[in-house]
Design goal:
The complex is a heterodimer of chains A (381) and B (284).
Chain A: E1 8-13, H1 14-24, E2 29-32, H2 39-48, E3 55-58, H3 62-74, E4 79-83, H4 85-101, E5 105-111, H5 128-133, E6 142-144, H6 149-166, E7 169-175, H7 176-180, E8 182-187, E9 231-233, H8 247-262, E10 271-274, E11 281-284, H9 288-302, E12 307-312, E13 314-316, H10 320-326, E14 332-337, H11 343-351, E15 356-361, H12 370-380
Parallel strand pairs in A: 2-3, 2-4, 4-5, 5-7, 6-7, 11-12, 11-14, 14-15
Antiparallel strand pairs in A: 1-8, 6-13, 10-12
Helix pairs in contact in A: 1-2, 1-6, 3-4, 9-12
Chain B: H1 31-45, E1 52-56, E2 71-74, H2 80-90, E3 95-101, H3 102-108, H4 110-119, E4 123-129, H5 164-171, E5 175-180, H6 184-196, E6 201-206, H7 210-216, H8 222-232, E7 233-235, H9 236-240, H10 244-247, E8 251-258, H11 264-283
Parallel strand pairs in B: 1-2, 1-3, 3-4, 4-6, 5-6, 7-8
Antiparallel strand pairs in B: 5-8
Classes of the chains: A alpha/beta (381), B alpha/beta (284).
The complex binds thiamine diphosphate and iron/sulfur cluster (SF4).
């Protein structure tokens, strides 16, 4: 974030930053259900939205929260919910509905340890794959993983931009430590970060098709009550939105859901590297785990070990081309995660036997210590 | 839509006639009759089609919106009220109508149903109660009577039922009404009243699923099931002056409950307006 003279520096909590990022992006509707460690986001929204003319509702559960934000988005609002593991699981059916009906909305998952009620007040990165494959059927997901309070803000703004640009739900994979951590950040001024809003139709209502084929595969989206009367259904549908059993139409619809994202994945990839230029051992880490990994890489460099860090910020779609290129000339890649190994399978697929793939996993609700990672670098180098 | 809808019919203006859909319903199913009533009620009230959102879940009943030329949202099983809550709160000027079945609205969607009543959000819910799961082939629902048969209650239902109207009333709805697909004129009128009521309003339409419920319970075809509705229905006004033994086993119809209480979206608007006043004062 560039700093300008009117921007405000403040000590902010991660969850508060997610909330402020959403408001910055123009979020004007939030529905949620309390769950640790995400609740501060809902509480902040309950306080802030009415002041800004937006609307907050505490629903009876997370299924309802997801339904409400989809309904509100269909009616033209910019919408978000926030939750954690158990709630994210409950949302899955309706998230699938948002994929197929191409409704923009943002879900912040402040991850805790799982499965089930798991570790309500402790960290995990165990929902990485759920963010990609959580609902049934074929679709392509977009998820981002912040690693600092500043990024909780920025990546929530990004999540809204991606969601509006691609007409699809986007998940922010935050976690308990990030959500509750406080850091000083500079809050950007209005206009400092670009805000993208869904494209609206410019054709007369009688020509409007809610899922019309367009060059970038994303159809302009009218809202309910704006004079375009259209149908939305979770059944596979034709470009007008009506259910279809035509195999050709089905193929077209499902391909659109995938291609509108994979063909434009360059717009989505966000990847940060540290000391990768001459590295022969690469550490791959994201979210909170990447903070310790970064320290470990610096420790290794002190010992003249040529280590580097690859930190995907956009987790889905996975940065295949970029990471494949970075792995050229690498002897060993060490994947560090706060789970039993999820992204390691993606890295393994890209390494494709050209380099050794090792992992370091922690799943006991605690963060990794840089020393633990450093020791593992020494073991696998 | 079927060729039977003529340009001279009121419904013609409200159906997606150009799509020429075959409808999914069995011949004689009462759901189409409810659709007719909804359309006539809307026409009579003169609402703009652009301002109406029809939101449904999953089931034969929930297929109703797709045929209608409004803003239509066919959602997931049981969740119509949750989606509708989002639509209504985001665009409070819209008339939001939920179409649901007894399974959709009371089993899987029961939680959303009671909380929308409690919240008293200005949504009209039309619950088409055919006492069974039609779409999935005749399984037991929360309104399948004790001892009645369903494919998942092959020896008769061991459970008890919900009284939808009492449930809604107890949960906090401000308007509750009921009729049957036999009583079409009454249905037109009650749907109109429900739509005009500010707050959560329920209209329960007793309907026939002759294909499953009728067959499994030997209640005959569509005509005989609908005629039975005539026999058991009793307007609540008449019931009030009858001795209890005369009302036993009867289905009370009409406006069953009608009260005034704060409505959620209006309360929210007041909150927003208060902040606006505050902001303006601070700026002055
Ligand atoms: C989550 C989920 N569970 C189950 C189903 C299968 N299902 C479709 S319709 C239906 C029952 C509908 O019954 P009701 O609401 O009474 O409607 P009717 O078909 O009788 O009008 C069920 C169980 C589903 N679509 N989604
Ligand atoms: S199965 Fe029953 S409810 Fe469904 S259309 Fe046929 S008669 Fe109507």
């Amino acid at each position: 974030m560039a700093q300008s003279k009117n921007s405000v520096r403040r000590l902010v909590q991660g969850n508060e930053a997610s909330m402020l990022g959403a408001l910055y992006a123009g979020c004007n509707f939030f529905a949620g259900y309390p769950i640790t460690p995400s609740t501060e986001i809902a509480e902040g929204m309950a306080r802030m939205l009415p002041k800004k003319g937006g609307r907050f509702i505490q629903m009876e559960d997370e299924i309802g929260s997801m339904g409400a934000i989809i309904g509100a988005s269909a009616a033209g609002a910019k919408t978000m919910t926030a939750t954690s593991g158990p709630g994210f699981s409950l949302m899955q059916e309706n998230i699938g509905y948002a994929y197929i009906t191409e409704v923009p909305c943002v879900v912040v998952n402040v991850q805790r340890g799982g499965p089930s009620t798991g570790l309500p007040t402790k960290i995990g990165q165990q929902d990485t794959m759920q963010a990609r494959w959580g609902t049934h059927g074929d679709y392509t997901a977009i998820s981002v993983a912040p690693a600092s309070v500043r990024e909780c803000f920025e990546q929530t703004v990004k999540a809204f931009n991606f969601s509006e640009r691609f007409r699809t739900p986007v998940t922010v994979l935050s976690d308990e430590v990030l959500g509750h951590m406080r850091e000083v950040i500079t809050l950007p001024e209005e206009g400092e970060i670009e805000i993208i809003n869904r494209e609206k139709p410019d054709v007369p209502a009688e020509w409007y098709h809610h899922f019309e084929a367009t060059p970038n595969l994303v159809s302009p989206m009218a809202g309910f009550g704006e004079g375009y009367r259209f149908h939305m259904t979770g059944l596979v549908h034709d470009p007008e939105g009506f259910p279809t059993a035509d195999t050709n139409e089905i193929r077209k619809k499902l391909s659109k859901l995938r291609n509108k994202i994979v063909r434009f994945s360059d717009e989505l990839v966000q990847l940060e590297t540290t000391m990768m230029d001459d590295a022969n051992i690469a550490v791959v880490a994201y979210g909170t785990a990447a903070r310790a990994a970064q320290q470990a890489v610096l420790m290794a460099r002190d010992k003249r070990i040529r280590a580097g860090l690859i930190r995907p910020i956009t987790i889905w779609p996975f940065a295949d081309d970029q990471i494949r290129a970075l792995l050229k000339g690498i002897k060993t890649v060490l994947v560090v995660e706060l789970n039993m190994g999820q992204i390691v399978h993606e890295v393994d697929r890209l390494a494709h036997r050209h380099c050794k793939v090792e992992s370091l996993n922690r799943f006991d609700g605690e963060v990794l210590d840089p020393v633990e990672i450093f020791k593992r670098i020494l073991e696998v180098k | 839509m079927p060729a039977t809808v003529q340009p001279s019919d009121v419904a013609y203006n409200y159906l997606r006639v150009k799509k020429n859909f075959p409808n999914v319903w069995c011949a004689g199913c009462g759901i189409g009759t409810v659709m007719g009533s909804i359309i006539r009620a809307i026409d009579k009230l003169g609402y703009s089609k652009n301002d109406i959102a029809l939101v449904s879940g999953i089931g034969c009943s929930s297929r109703l919106p797709v045929y209608c030329d409004f803003n239509t949202l066919h959602t997931t099983h049981g969740r119509a009220i949750a989606f509708a809550t989002g639509v209504k709160l985001a665009k409070p000027h819209m008339k939001v109508i939920v179409i649901t079945g007894d399974g959709d609205g009371l089993a899987i969607g029961g939680n959303h149903f009671i909380h929308a009543c409690r919240r008293n959000i200005d949504i009209t819910t039309i619950l088409i109660n055919n006492h069974i799961y039609g779409m999935t082939g005749g399984q037991c629902s929360p309104t399948t009577a004790h001892d009645k048969k369903a494919t998942t209650a092959p020896y008769g239902n061991l459970e008890n039922t919900f009284d939808v109207a009492q449930l809604a009333q107890a949960a906090g709805a401000s308007f509750v009404s009921r009729s049957t697909v036999y009583h079409v004129q009454q249905m037109d009128k009650l749907i109109g009243l429900a739509l005009e009521k500010k707050g959560f309003s329920l209209f329960e339409a007793i309907s026939n699923c002759h294909t499953y419920y009728g067959r499994l319970n030997k209640e005959g075809d569509a005509v005989s099931m609908i005629q039975d509705m005539k026999k058991i229905a009793l307007p609540i006004k008449a019931a009030k002056v009858l001795p209890p033994e005369k009302t036993k086993g009867k289905l009370l119809t009409g406006v069953l409950w009608d009260v005034e209480k704060p409505e959620f979206c209006s309360e929210y608007q007041k909150l927003i307006d208060n902040f606006k006043d505050e902001r303006e004062k601070n700026n002055a």
